[in-house]
Amino acid sequence: MLNATWLNTFTTLCEIGHFTRSADALGMTQPGVSQHLRKLEAQVGKPLIVQDGKSFTPTPAGEALFKVGLARRQQERDLKEVMQRDDPDVGEVRIGCSGSFAMWLYPHLLERLRLAPDLALHLTAAPQGNVIRSLIRGDLDLGILTGQPQHPQLEAKMIMREELCLVVPSFMQSQEIDLASLNHLGFVTHPDGHEYADELLGRNFVKDYQGSDHLKTRTSVNQIGQILIPVAEGLGFTILPRSGVDAFARRGDVSIVDLPFKHHHDLWLTFRRGRGKFARIASVIALIEEEVCALD
């Protein structure tokens, strides 16, 4: 039989694609990861990877074993779910969404945890494509997406329409905002910034807006909790969903511009077919629906 520990190490290594980061994820040293790999190769009698400098490629045997590792993880998750009581306050629920929505949602999840000592809630901020793939694989129980997924294994319900907001320093809230004044201030961009700019600024500054690549970028950051800090400091403007703005600790230092043409994203609460009936998952679905209703 395959050694379960070595197989888990190898599966993690294939998922992450990097020895050092895999070691960090597993709480091991890099030599420890290499040792598990060599022991597993000796057990199966085949090389499992081909190394090229710091990168590697799984061999055909490695690819086959990686699939076995993923399947075994899913079997263990399925077994754990069967063995758990169908209790809304017991078990694990894994949620994936955008960083902006995660900032808003997490405090509400913490309130839920206070009432349920045997419930574990895991929140992951990730791009939409990653959330969809994780839902399909079973790595996530719930996802909040900005579009209805078209996949036969997934169910989805629209829970709210979220406004996309132009955010400026609070000292500008009484000023007339045009594209020139925004460009003078400078754009605080982020991974979704240019897409958001085209969606919102293109609708409101039709005559002057030539595309996000013509905006003057002042700074860029990929950590959702940091995006509004330079705006609060008066160093630029940005564009974010309202959930990310409302969750910002220095909300009083930034202002949402009241634009004539609003733009919204439809948010879809998504889960694998049938899983929404599990008591613990259904209770979190109800919590999210209740909290987003309170936003209206």
From TrEMBL:
<keyword id="KW-0238">DNA-binding</keyword>
<protein>
    <submittedName>
        <fullName>LysR family transcriptional regulator</fullName>
    </submittedName>
</protein>
<keyword id="KW-0804">Transcription</keyword>
<dbReference type="InterPro" id="IPR036390">
    <property type="entry name" value="WH_DNA-bd_sf"/>
</dbReference>
<dbReference type="InterPro" id="IPR036388">
    <property type="entry name" value="WH-like_DNA-bd_sf"/>
</dbReference>
<dbReference type="InterPro" id="IPR000847">
    <property type="entry name" value="LysR_HTH_N"/>
</dbReference>
<dbReference type="Pfam" id="PF03466">
    <property type="entry name" value="LysR_substrate"/>
</dbReference>
<dbReference type="Pfam" id="PF00126">
    <property type="entry name" value="HTH_1"/>
</dbReference>
<comment type="similarity">
    <text>Belongs to the LysR transcriptional regulatory family.</text>
</comment>
<keyword id="KW-0805">Transcription regulation</keyword>
<feature type="domain" description="HTH lysR-type">
    <location>
        <begin position="2"/>
        <end position="59"/>
    </location>
</feature>
<dbReference type="InterPro" id="IPR005119">
    <property type="entry name" value="LysR_subst-bd"/>
</dbReference>
